[in-house]
Amino acid sequence: MNTPPAIAGLVLAAGASGRMGSDKALALYQGRTFLASVVATAREAGIEQLAVVLGHHADEIRQAVDLSGVQVVVNAHYHLGQTSSLQAGLRALAGGNYNALVLCLVDHPAVSSSTVRELIAAYLDCRAPVVVPLFEGRRGHPVIISQELFGPMQALNSDQGANLVIRQYQDRTRAVPVSDSGVVLDIDDPQMLAKLG
């Protein structure tokens, strides 16, 4: 009898949110913070092991958002960019022997849990190294990456983005068409936040 693959979740929420002017993790979407929204979505999608990487204003965010049951990782080097936070999260989850990771970004709070479940189902079906949602031809987030990519991502320099690794697997990437515009709603500034409603 085959054991189903272990899939963890990783939420990147360490950035300084320069364009937003305030912490994106604490911005509000439908009455709760972006970070609480992303964590709740992951939980509702059935992800049991979840890590959140904080950096800028980490203490304030921990006080404002209920992260009980979540593994909190503080990236002291968040100023080096998102790759350093991804690597901090991968290190924190390294002991769990996960087959894959659902990589979530805090500035995508409008993704539905059913979409995340759809992506997980696609991964379980094909075991592709990368699974991405596709909305009206545009790639979005969250992205599922298999353990095959963990090592190469850990080897990236801080000025290299995760896409450098993901592109190397583009011929084996599974794109999953979804009807959820939330996968491409990247809320980076007050204008986008106002449109989000």
Kindly name the structural category.
alpha/beta
Total strand count, please?
A: 10
Distance between the termini: 47 Å
- Average predicted local confidence, pLDDT: 91
What is the N-to-C succession of helices and strands? EEEHEHEHEHEEEHHEH
Number of DSSP helical runs: 7
Oligomeric state as shown: single chain
Largest sheet: 8 strands, mixed
The outline comes out as: globular
Low-confidence stretches: none
Percent range of helical residues: 25-40%
Give a brief description:
The chain is an alpha/beta fold and 197 residues long. The protein is 30% helix and 22% strand.
Main traits of this protein?
22% strand; 10 strands; 7 helices; alpha/beta; two-stranded antiparallel sheet; 197 residues; 8-stranded mixed beta sheet; single chain
Q: How is this structure best described in words?
A:
- The protein is of the alpha/beta class.
- It is 30% helix and 22% strand.
- The protein contains seven helices and ten strands.
- Strands 1, 4, 5, 6, 7, 8, 9 and 10 form an eight-stranded mixed beta sheet that branches. The chain has a two-stranded antiparallel ribbon with strand order 2-3.
- The longest helix is centred in the middle third of the chain and has 14 residues, at 113-126.
- The chain is globular.
- It starts with 6 loop residues before the first strand and ends with a helix.
